[in-house]
Amino acid sequence: MKLKSFLLRYYPPGIMLEYEQSGQLKTKSIDLLDLHTSTDVNALVEEIQKAEPLITASRADQVKLLIQRLQNKLGQYSNHTFYLFKVLRAHILPLTNVAINKSGSCFITGSYDRTCKIWDTASGEELHTLEGHRNVVYAIAFNNPYGKVYTLIGHCAEISSALFNWDCSLILTGSMDKTCMLWDATNGKCVATLTGHDDEILDSCFDYTGKLIATASADGTARVFSAATRKCITKLEGHEGEISKISFNPQGNRLLTGSSDKTARIWDAQTGQCFQVLEGHTDEIFSCAFNYKGDIIITGSKDNTCRIWR
Questions:
Q1: Which of 261, 296, 265 is nearest to 282 (CA)?
Q2: N or C: lower Cβ tally within 10 Å for the chain?
Q3: By C-alpha distance, which of 168, 181, 163 is closest to 246?
Q4: Cα–Cα distances in Å, from 225 out to 4, 18, 61, 247, 307?
Q5: Cα–Cα distance, 197 to 271 (Å, whole number)
Q6: Angle (nearest 5°) at CA 247 between 243 and 249
Q7: CB of 41 closer than 8 Å to CB of 68
Q8: Are 259 and 284 a contacting pair, CB within 8 Å?
Q9: Each residue's pLDDT tens digit in the chain (310 positions)?
Q10: Cβ(306)–Cβ(88) under 8 Å?
């Protein structure tokens, strides 16, 4: 085997190795899910060298520089204060959802008006209108080439959210039955049921490493669970209405929630402390999201507007 090049993966943090074997170009990944800004880089590189023969002594300094770049990226935007950047009169009827592409260059909105629209994030210009649906557009997303589809049977009421973790080994579903279920993506079997909410679960998500799970409920609270232990780590309290949307920032240390109380909030994912309340919408917030870097937020509301915060 001959190492050809390194590729960085910022979220979740890792290094991709591109190497040649028997005349074929192949890749493998070194996952650094436990990497923090305080991690001892020299010690970490020594561990990597012991486990990966492609990382020879001559490559050690190069790997150190790459890991330091990852650390710098993890340290960005953690304490960023957001301000209103732009208001878009997006649809003629209320919005149901928003999603940002990986680079943050554009985003998509769905609406009760049965259309989706694609927008330029920097200018706020409408790029495309997607038509053809015969009813309300409730869910939208940019394509993700990973994962498989299974029939998951177990909830006793409507499923409000469904998504894979980062490596597509687990599936998380949230339901109107007040529970979330965790499923093995290789066989479609339920491996855990997360309970504790007093009302319907309206949204749920993984962090970028798949170690944390967040749930948002009509009971006005959000909860953070450990994906490993399935135990509740913290409870987010402060909204005065149901929470319709929840998402982690790329670093996994902040949570964003949108609520029927017309506000979005930014929280510490470990302690549940609220850092900032984003105000300005005149009706319920149906959707909200961070961009790939975590320095831009988009909120979509029943007031027919999107707001960009940066």
A1: 261
A2: N
A3: 163
A4: 40, 35, 37, 13, 29
A5: 18
A6: 140
A7: yes
A8: yes
A9: 888 889 888 877 889 898 888 888 888 889 898 898 899 999 999 999 999 999 999 999 999 999 999 988 887 766 778 889 888 888 999 888 888 887 788 999 989 998 989 999 999 999 999 888 888 887 676 655 443 445 678 999 888 888 888 877 888 999 999 999 999 988 889 999 999 999 999 999 999 888 999 999 999 999 999 999 999 999 999 999 999 999 999 889 999 999 999 999 999 999 999 999 999 999 999 999 999 888 999 999 999 999 999 9
A10: yes
Q: Residue 36 corresponds to which amino acid?
A: H
Return the residue matching tokens 């020879």: 56
Please provide the size of the chain in residues: 310
- Two tokens, residue 80: 């960023």
